[in-house]
Amino acid sequence: MRLTRPILALGGAALVLALAGCGSGDTKKEAAVPEAATGSLEHLAAEVKCTPDMQTDADEIRQAICKNPDGKFILATFATDRGQREWINGAKDYGGFYLVGRKWVAVGHEDVVASLRGRLGGTLEEGTSHSSHSSHSPGEEASHAGHDG
């Protein structure tokens, strides 16, 4: 599969963001959700007022770290819907919170992703192991990250 390396790179980044931000869980500020934004990574970044720090610039996936007044997050765009869904399904094993639009995803702490949704629209998705980190040490969970079968 051609997306393995980008999946692992962004999945690891999602794990770091998820572990760094776990615990506050305050998502009371849910505003009206606009129609999901579309466009390039740079266009989406401009919509949420961040200057993207590009990490991956490949044909299949473009990925950047962004920071704005809401917080730090990862923004990724995909060449295909299938590539996006495969990436999300693999990344969700690392936990975290995902804001999903057509051929793009933003990954970050729950309150950051909720704030981004007010400007980008999209659908909120949560990783499967986000709350399980309390029963494992971060090193143990990270060691499981490389075992995706």
Order of helices and strands: HHEEEHEEHEH
Percent of residues in β-strands? 15-25%
Number of helical regions = 5
Q: Tell me the overall shape.
A: globular
Structure class: alpha+beta
Average pLDDT confidence is 78
Number of strands: 6
Helix content: 25-40%
Which spans of ≥5 residues are poorly predicted at pLDDT below 50?
Answer: 15-30, 132-149
**Major sheet: size, sense and barrel closure?**
6 strands, antiparallel
Task: Please give a structural write-up.
The chain has a six-stranded antiparallel β-sheet, with helices on both faces. The protein contains five helices and six strands; from the N terminus they run H-H-E-E-E-H-E-E-H-E-H. The protein has 149 residues and is of the alpha+beta class. Helices cover 37% and strands 23% of the residues. Helix 1 (4-21) packs across helix 3 (81-91).
